[in-house]
């Protein structure tokens, strides 16, 4: 079998989010075992095993799961600092979405969000940066020198965007 055919067959065997909502409810014992495993995987920050658990249960069921402290999976991930599972659950629930990669044009005013800084810095785009390019070259407003800095686009936002 060709590699592409194997990949297609593997993908066909995995339930999608839409198919997961059509899954039959597991029996109560199995559901409880899956619930406990899901909470353990959130604490361990193990997305791979959590995915397996959630793919076996309808979304309408696992979104209502709570632990003894009445915390759901997303809340527990946030409280425990399980960043990978928090990001995974946020995407799966439709809370987080991929940011669109914008094009930037010369002399466009932008905000630059630097790590560890609470307030973004103002800057001006120095070179055109098409959407498919991953970085943008800017001149910082608070920098008196004529230096230019290059940042990943995830750190740069247009000023006029809300």
Q: Any key phrases for this structure?
A:
alpha+beta, 5 strands, 5-stranded antiparallel β-sheet, 162 residues, 7 helices, elongated
Would you mind describing this structure in some detail?
By secondary structure, the chain is α+β, with helices and mostly antiparallel strands. It folds into two domains: 3-92, no CATH class; 109-158. It is 39% helix and 14% strand. The protein is built from seven helices and five strands, in the order H-H-H-H-H-H-H-E-E-E-E-E. It has helices at 3-13, 17-20, 28-44, 47-55, 59-62, 73-80, 83-92, and strands spanning 109-112, 121-125, 135-140, 149-152, 156-158. A five-stranded antiparallel beta sheet has the order 4-3-2-1-5, with no helix packed on it. Helix 3 (28-44) packs antiparallel against helix 4 (47-55) and helix 3 runs parallel beside helix 6 (73-80). Mean pLDDT is 86; it is low at 1-21.
Span between termini? 50 Å
Instruction: Spell out the helices and strands N to C.
Output: HHHHHHHEEEEE
Rounded mean pLDDT is: 86
Apparent shape: elongated
How is the biggest beta sheet arranged?
5 strands, antiparallel
So what's the oligomer here? single chain
Low-confidence stretches: 1-21
Structural class: alpha+beta
List the strand order in the largest sheet.
4-3-2-1-5
Helix content: 25-40%
The count of strands amounts to 5
Count of DSSP-assigned helices: 7
How many discrete domains? 2
Radius of gyration: 22 Å
Measured by DSSP, the beta-strand proportion falls in 5-15%
């Amino acid at each position: 079998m060709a590699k592409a055919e194997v990949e297609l067959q593997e993908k066909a065997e995995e339930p999608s989010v839409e198919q997961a909502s059509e899954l039959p409810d597991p029996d109560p014992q199995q559901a409880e075992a899956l619930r406990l495993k899901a909470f353990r995987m959130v604490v361990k920050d193990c997305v791979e095993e959590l995915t397996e658990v959630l793919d076996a249960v309808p979304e309408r069921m696992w979104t209502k799961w709570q632990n003894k402290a009445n915390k759901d999976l997303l809340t527990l991930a946030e409280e425990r600092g399980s960043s990978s599972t928090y990001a995974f659950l946020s995407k799966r629930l439709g809370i987080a979405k991929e940011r669109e990669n914008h094009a930037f044009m010369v002399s466009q005013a932008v905000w630059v969000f630097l790590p560890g800084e609470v307030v973004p810095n103002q800057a001006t785009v120095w070179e055109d940066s098409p959407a498919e390019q991953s970085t943008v070259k800017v001149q910082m407003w608070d920098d008196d020198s004529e230096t230019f800095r290059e940042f990943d686009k995830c750190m740069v936002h247009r000023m006029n965007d809300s």
